[in-house]
Structures are given as structure tokens and as C-alpha cells.
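ok posting inputs for the adenosine-5'-triphosphate job
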Amino acid sequence: MPPSADSSSYAVETRDLAKVFGSQRAVDGIDLQVPTGSVYGFLGPNGSGKTTTIRMLLGLITPTAGDHQILGHPMPAELTTALHRVGSLIEGPAFHSHLSGMANLRRLDAADARSDASTSDQRIHEALDRVGLKPAAGKRFRAYSLGMKQRLAIAAALLAPRDLLVLDEPTNGLDPQGTREVRHLVGTLAADGITVLISSHLLAEIQQICSHIGVMRAGKLVAQGSIDELRSTQTAQLVVHTPDPEQAAQVLARLGIGQVQRDGDVVTGTPGTEPPERISAALAGAGVRLRRFAIDRPSLEDLYVSLTGEGFEVRS
Ligand SMILES: Nc1ncnc2c1ncn2[C@@H]1O[C@H](COP(=O)(O)OP(=O)(O)OP(=O)(O)O)[C@@H](O)[C@H]1O
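and the output
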């Protein structure tokens, strides 16, 4: 089945996209929907299928099954037209360390058969300006910081006008400062109206800039949606700290609170739609003394960990 007729609202849309390597289903029938204008965080542990998906999206490898469209163009039928407006950073362009950032971009621009040589200088200056590298344009590549090197790679992807930017793990291997630089840059590109698909195995690194996320686990897309949608799927938990736990547990059970559990002087449960003020009034009415009363909503990190089993890297 081809992607839906209303494809214009998605910069990228796949239907049952799959890639099998030998006996391994690296990508196992995924329906990716990247809304136009979004910053879509494509998340998942190493080996979960993100790069394979991105390679299929960009026509670098042939899917085993499924369909997809990019910027409204069915792939691979309209590959050339679609990719004209797509910038990508997968393994990163090979830069020459002894050449300046500007000279490197000049070489890449000249190598693009579609680029107009007479407007090359303007394109290169604009791309350097966009990634904040104009002041360092004449510096040798090897003197660039990690963040600057990655920003130059993004500048290379921006040598032509783009509606969609696909970045595969652009913060991988960067120090915290470099990560901040890439994050800031993605934010400014998104503000200019470019849809950004950015993959990472660390939610914490890209969460602040994403409007949407999709989570891969073992080749499957196990969650997808806007950050708000995904947050709202998280079950809230009622937490009561009290010197009267026995009594509190009885009151909560009577109110119909789900999964009431006692652990020392802490009583927990799932409040469902029961308003907090009704719960606290019932506890007070029964003479339960409260040290802490809270309804905690698990964070997006909790959701990511529960979906993927991934912990968080602690950087020294
Ligand atoms: N060309 C290939 N031949 C055989 N297996 C492959 C090939 N490319 C990827 N795989 C396998 O497919 C699975 C998914 O790999 P993929 O690189 O897409 O994951 P990923 O989520 O991008 O992880 P990473 O961040 O480590 O690249 C892995 O088990 C990988 O070993």
C-alpha cells in the first residue's frame, strides 16, 4: 500500500518499510511519520535500525519491503527530484585537514554537478554564516573544535536550499560544548522552517530541540508522536508519605485508586481520573496525616528507558 494521499503534511512518510540482512530483520516494517516543519528525534539504542532506515529513506540502500515518500515524492520513482531539497549528514563528508573550512566547502561545492559555479562564493558564504563559522572560515580544518567540525559538515549539507535535513547521530563523539553547538544550530535551522530528522541513541542530548520523537527497538518503531502526546501516555502515579500508611491504603482502595501499594510509610497507586483534591480531602477526612502528597508523571526519559531498556550515559 502506498503512503496516504495526504502526504503533504509529512516531510517523510513510510509504510511497512523493512530491510532484511541475511536472516536479520534490521528494520521490521515501520510506519514513520515526520511532520513537515518538525524536529523529529529518531531514537533508539545502537543497532536498533536507525542508520539502516535513514539509508533507505535517502535511497542509499534498497528496502526489502514497504513504501516511502520524501517531501511528497514517492521513492525511489522520484528520487532525484526529492533529494534535490534534502541535505544529509550520514557518515559525514571527508574533509581535508590542511585546508580551511572555506576551501573544503569550495571543493565539495565544485564536485556537485548541479551547482552553478558563478554563484559558488555566495552559497559558501551563506552556508558558513548559517552555521556560525564565518569568523573561522579561513582556519585550517584540523584546528577546528569537534563542534566546529560537525557544524562544517552541516554547512556542507546546506550548500543548496533545503526543505529537509537528515542528520544521523550528529552529536555522537562530541564533547558537551560541541553537542550544545549542534543543538543550537538545529534549533536555528528549524526556526527557518527546515524539517529536521535527527537520530541519536541519547534522548537527553536532543530532547530539548525535538517537537516529535520516534523510538526504535530491535528494528521496530515502538513509539512515535509529539513530545506532548507521548508524555500524556505516561501513567501518573500517586505518592503519599504518611505516618499512617495502613489507614491511607484503605482510604485509597475505597476511592477506587488502582494498584495501591504500601512500602514502609510510602503508599502509591494510579489515580486515573480521580481529581487530586478529592483524594487529599478523603485522606484528611479519615484523619490520615500527610508528610508528602504528590501526583508524579514519569518523565520522557522514564518512557524511553521502559521502551528500550537503555540507561543513560554519564559523561565524566
Ligand atoms: N550492511 C549490513 N549487513 C548486515 N547487517 C547489517 C548491515 N547494516 C546494518 N546491519 C545490522 O542491522 C542492525 C541495525 O543496524 P543500524 O546501523 O541500522 O542500527 P543503528 O540503530 O543505526 O545503530 P548505530 O547507532 O550503532 O549505527 C544491526 O544489527 C547491524 O549489525
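notes: Residues 21, 24, 26, 44, 46-52, 169, 201 surround adenosine-5'-triphosphate (CB under 6 Å). The CA atoms of residues 39 and 196 lie 5 Å apart.
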